[in-house]
């Protein structure tokens, strides 16, 4: 079982045009009254008002077929050379021309502007070089891509029409409640316009498809080919774009996912205006806050986004945000868990100055940050190289770990970057809490409870001090050989 994009893919060769739906006829079953799910009724009038704005989309990518069958190794210099060469050329051997191969997909979309602006999923159009939008009246209009974004899986298309096109409008997905009636319209399995109805089953679903997952879940039947189609509320407003399904067979089992309208509206605006996205960028690397980390930082309950690293070229560093800070509020909005932060940051315009509230040593601190542009930040180096500091000799054991100085020999043995500073773990007891937390030889401890360490003795002293204070955990900032850092909370018992 896995998540599947609700899209039909078709492979077309020069010899065959086949639409392989792969749909087996399922036996009919009657639902018992106790299991029957109520559906919104009386939707005919609603369907009439929105159906003409929902379109089918056919996207085709032509790929040059560079493969060729090898010609058998035949003797050369015979009277039959020309005959063999012509034979294998005519029958697809080496040197024979190969027709381009075409990959096609079928999906859905909807019109939001009478001038011809069509919205669909990015994965429906992909890298297609021929996109056709098919209207309910049968017209087939060539479309061009205005812009697309893989991170929220949305694409903006433009078609030309000799008359204004019917449209639908977006609604406020934040106002949609679990249990509200919804209606999906699309092109499942290439059958043409189909209407299904159900309820909003859940909100804020994370299916690990991208950095901004915040899906609406519905039991309205969504199948392959529904991708890019609208999910309507009962007022006829688009509150989501149908994107993915959870299914072992490719068909609907009552678990479908739609990208909320409030997630895609700002992206669509950027794509229309610039042809590309311009998301806000904070310049921090974050990780979730678990109970152990929350206890070690004095947060009470686990919440917020723990800053594991700060980009030297990002906006957060000059604003004074440091590793170990826990971001609990961004631009006036609570950060309940780490995955909330990327969505909040990305939704704010580049160049905007926002207040970021962090918890530092148990106290709230507010920092004003002027956001950069994420797309620019992704092109910058992750971190600057820092010259290693002078270090003494020594070793120690603590919490099931053997600790050593970060000597030139240790750097060579464990293949550690020169930019790393701290204390290297030379060995880990397999039965220790350190091993259970994923620490292993070659990891470098840079900080203990947000205090830098450079010698094994620094760690032993820090652990002893924490125990005297009655602390139950020690918060370590740990880097691997490549310099990637993370926080780990180790129990002191």
Structure description:
This protein has helices at 44-50, 81-90, 122-125, 261-274, 291-297, 316-319, 340-346, 374-377, 408-414, 433-436, 456-468; strands at residues 2-5, 8-12, 54-63, 101-113, 117-120, 130-134, 140-149, 154-159, 181-186, 194-205, 215-218, 230-233, 238-247, 256-260, 280-281, 284-288, 305-310, 326-330, 333-334, 353-360, 363-370, 372-373, 395-398, 401-405, 423-428, 444-448, 451-452, 473-479, 485-491. By secondary structure, the chain is an alpha+beta fold. It has 3 domains: 1-12 and 43-66 and 91-277, Thrombin, subunit H (Beta Barrel), CATH 2.40.10.120; 280-377, Pdz3 Domain; 395-491, Pdz3 Domain (Roll), CATH 2.30.42. The strands form 5 sheets. Strands 23, 24, 25, 26, 27, 28 and 29 form a 7-stranded antiparallel sheet that branches. The model is unreliable at 10-37 and 381-394 (pLDDT under 50).
Helix fraction by DSSP (H/I, runs of at least 4): 10-25%
Low-confidence sequence ranges: 10-37, 381-394
Q: How far apart are the first and last residues' alpha carbons, in Å?
A: 41 Å
Structural classification: alpha+beta
Question: Under CATH, the topology of the largest domain is which?
Answer: Thrombin, subunit H
Radius of gyration, in angstroms, nearest whole number: 29 Å
Counting copies of identical and different chains, the oligomeric state is single chain
Overall pLDDT confidence: 80
CATH class of the largest domain: Mainly Beta
Tally of DSSP β-strands: 29
* Morphology: elongated
- Number of structurally distinct domains: 3
